[in-house]
Amino acid sequence: MHRIGKVVRVEGSGVMVRFERPAACTGCGACARDQKTTTVYALGSAKVGDIVSVQMPEGAPSALPG
Length: 66
Known about the structure:
This protein is mainly beta.
C-alpha cells in the first residue's frame, strides 16, 4: 500500500510519519481501530512538516494509533 503522510518527528535514522485514515478503512479496525490518524516509523531522512511517500507492506499491522 502506498501512502502519503506528514513527518511529525525525526527519530534516529528515520522519521515518524502521520497519515489520515483512508475512507476505505472505515469499519476494518486492523490498524488503528477508532483513530482517525495513524503514525508509523519509516527509515529515511526528512524534516518535520515534510510531506512524504511511504510504501507500506500489504496487511502489515505496523501502525501505532496516534
